[in-house]
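Q&A log
Question type: sequence-to-structure
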Amino acid sequence: MNILQAITQNIFLPKYLTPMRILLPVICFSFVATLLQAQTFWEKGGFALEAQRFYEQATALHDAGELESAAEYYGAAIETDPQHFKALYNLALVYFDLGKYGKAEVTLGKLLGANPADTAAYELYGHVLSRNGQHERAIECFNIALNSAPTDDLYVNRALAYISTGRGTMALHDFDEALKLNPENFEACLGKGITLSELGQNRLAISWFDHAISIRPDDASAYANRAVAQFQIGEKEAAMTDFRTAIWKNRQPDTYLLRARCYLLDGNLSDALADAKEALILDSENPEVYALVGEIELKKGDLAAAIESFGVAIDLRPDHSAYYLRRSEAKIKNRQCYEAVSDLYRVLDLEPYNPEARKMLQTAYSQIDAEVQNQVLSASGRL
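Response status: OK
Response body:
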């Protein structure tokens, strides 16, 4: 897993605000985007009035942060009036806030089926699909929203979806479009810096991290990502200073993960493991932490421990191909080739054209053939 992927696991989702407003997440760096939906409610007799009463109770609960209760009242409003578009939208928003992305997707499907012109719903739909790993469909939704009313935040959102599909160049274009509309968009500056760093243009990336820091001097993520770029061009002392600054400003697991990866690249396994353990204390449910521990153990030659750590990462995120790939590497080295083959076929189920998995399959099968031949020779020698 590369550095950008390593920092794109934790999603920050701020509190819902009225009216019909959502602060949408960005990967790792606390992005705040706003969805506004202006819809007219037409009262149509008693049923509509009853639905509106349920809706008003739901929004009060929603504002108070009582999301489960809000969902019940939004559902009651929709049951009374299936065409209550505001209730459908806000119910999807509640499901999104609760992490129930499958239910949010179904609800938005109903809304857009009844009201396909609702561009605000397409933007929320894009975020829901991204959380469900459907990044191509998410891009299509962001396209619709951008064609209706382009904003700098929408360009940033689509750029993030492009990053998730490995299209860094297209992400850079969208970050640039966002910056044309708003040169002070922190997330666009930070995202452009991260993408440039991933493309190996670290000195240029540092200039964008500098700009991001000038916009938000207290944001830890900008310092942490600048540290990574500095480390990669050999400015290790400056990198460690930035890491310490980031931790001082906000002691978050991502910073420890990034510094641990730098230590790992430098062959400093003890400090890498220490930072990984700090990240684990801060976020024990983050699969990236266990995957990093597995990489460190693999580097140390502790193959059984590495296999176990990668297994925990897989349990937490069973649809992530990189974890299976790294576990299969440890299994091949530990001469568990049949089990490695099983992991590699799982990788190919998730990514049919993964070249590393195909190459490792050949290695695993070669070792299996060699073991079989040795067994045959041993058996014939005893006869």
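Response note: The CA atoms of residues 290 and 309 lie 5 Å apart.
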